[in-house]
Amino acid sequence: MIRSTLSRHVTTVEREYPTLSDHSPHSSPLDPFLARFLAAVAKEDDGFQPGAEGRAIASTLDVPPSFVDALFTSARTRGLLKPVYGRAGKVRWNVSASGAELVRAHHGAGESGRG
Questions:
Q1: pTM score
Q2: By CB distance 3.0 to 4.6 Å, which of 7, 42, 60, 106 could disulfide with 111?
Q3: What is the mean pLDDT of residues 88-103?
Q4: Mean pLDDT of all residues in the chain?
């Protein structure tokens, strides 16, 4: 139900359903999947590089490779991964402190990190 009241040129709208702004800006419906993805990345000694390694993680998580690409993009954009610059400009990605926190939060909530 939406109820509006007009008072001196100001409209107030009351909603009885959740909106995106009702959720923490640091959470996402992808978080359980991101936690599994980040846990898999954390197991890699020298970090993660999209491509063939993404296909390997997709197989481990039993998801399509394109979904791992989407998880990588989301994690990178949200700062859950940090770049590690190597020789010849090669960039690999490791789990950041905030990414490790997300993994801990989901493992503590009963997520196993396995598919």
A1: 0.70
A2: 106
A3: 93
A4: 80
Q: What is the pLDDT of residue 109?
A: 57
DSSP 63-74: S-HHHHHHHHHH
The radius of gyration of the chain's CA atoms, rounded to the nearest angstrom, is: 19
Euclidean distance between CA atoms 57 and 23, whole angstroms: 29
Q: How far is CA 35 from CA 6, 13, 21, 102, 107, in A?
A: 45, 36, 22, 6, 8
- Rounded Cα distance between 46 and 43, Å, is 9
- Give the model's pLDDT for residue 6: 53
> Within 13 Å, how many C-alpha atoms sit on residue 54's CB side?
15
Structural domains in the chain, sorted by start: 29-108 (1.10.10.10)
In degrees, rounded to 5, the angle at the alpha carbon of residue 95 between the alpha carbons of residues 92 and 99 is: 145
Q: Of all residues in the chain, what percent carry a pLDDT higher than 90?
A: 54
Is pLDDT of 114 > 60?
no
